[in-house]
């Protein structure tokens, strides 16, 4: 799951209707009145703020201001923790939006389980992914890679993906990732 969207969901679910209303008021200079009138949840508000490029994973100042104004230190702390995690994330950790996942997703096919085993992903996680995405092979591959990334955390490296691909005789896919 995208960590920034997950952060927004956590914040939104912690907001009362009155707090959302206050936040809408504070956004009047950023969002057109007509758009603001239709907003009923924090998620809708955050979605518009993202569209307007007012908030982004690397642009959290305005979101923090909003949370300070409504005196929600607990939610502000979530944003600060998110920022810290982003700062300390290694540069070579694969991101589901980067090339390695897309290349693997498009080219591994039925060998996905072999690859995941080579990466050391537990069978329980493989079964969970297979059950959830039974009828969509590419999505199975993608979700399995995300499970591996979550499972390994900061130790999930592109180099490990390349090594595992080579270990599964998927050298061409490994070469594409290296390029």
From TrEMBL:
<dbReference type="InterPro" id="IPR016729">
    <property type="entry name" value="FADD"/>
</dbReference>
<dbReference type="GO" id="GO:0005123">
    <property type="term" value="F:death receptor binding"/>
</dbReference>
<dbReference type="GO" id="GO:0042981">
    <property type="term" value="P:regulation of apoptotic process"/>
</dbReference>
<dbReference type="InterPro" id="IPR001875">
    <property type="entry name" value="DED_dom"/>
</dbReference>
<dbReference type="GO" id="GO:0031265">
    <property type="term" value="C:CD95 death-inducing signaling complex"/>
</dbReference>
<dbReference type="GO" id="GO:0097191">
    <property type="term" value="P:extrinsic apoptotic signaling pathway"/>
</dbReference>
<dbReference type="Pfam" id="PF00531">
    <property type="entry name" value="Death"/>
</dbReference>
<dbReference type="InterPro" id="IPR011029">
    <property type="entry name" value="DEATH-like_dom_sf"/>
</dbReference>
<dbReference type="InterPro" id="IPR000488">
    <property type="entry name" value="Death_dom"/>
</dbReference>
<dbReference type="Pfam" id="PF01335">
    <property type="entry name" value="DED"/>
</dbReference>
<feature type="domain" description="Death">
    <location>
        <begin position="97"/>
        <end position="179"/>
    </location>
</feature>
<feature type="domain" description="DED">
    <location>
        <begin position="3"/>
        <end position="81"/>
    </location>
</feature>
<dbReference type="GO" id="GO:0045089">
    <property type="term" value="P:positive regulation of innate immune response"/>
</dbReference>
<protein>
    <submittedName>
        <fullName>FADD protein</fullName>
    </submittedName>
</protein>
<dbReference type="GO" id="GO:0089720">
    <property type="term" value="F:caspase binding"/>
</dbReference>
């Amino acid at each position: 799951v995208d960590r920034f969207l997950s952060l927004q969901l956590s914040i939104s679910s912690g907001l009362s209707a009155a707090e959302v209303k206050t936040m809408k008021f504070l956004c009047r200079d950023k969002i057109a009145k007509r758009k603001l009138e239709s907003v009923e949840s924090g998620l809708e508000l955050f979605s518009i703020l993202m569209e307007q490029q007012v908030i982004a994973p690397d642009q959290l100042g305005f979101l923090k201001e909003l949370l300070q104004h409504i005196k929600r230190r607990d939610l502000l702390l979530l944003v600060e923790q998110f920022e810290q995690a982003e700062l300390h994330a290694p540069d070579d950790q694969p991101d589901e939006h980067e090339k390695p996942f897309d290349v693997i997703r498009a080219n591994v096919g039925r060998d996905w389980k072999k690859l995941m085993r080579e990466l050391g992903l537990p069978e329980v996680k493989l079964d969970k992914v297979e059950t959830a995405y039974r009828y969509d092979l590419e999505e199975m591959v993608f979700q399995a890679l995300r499970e591996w990334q979550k499972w390994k955390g900061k130790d999930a490296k592109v180099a490990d993906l390349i090594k595992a691909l080579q270990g599964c005789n998927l050298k061409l896919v490994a070469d594409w990732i290296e390029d």
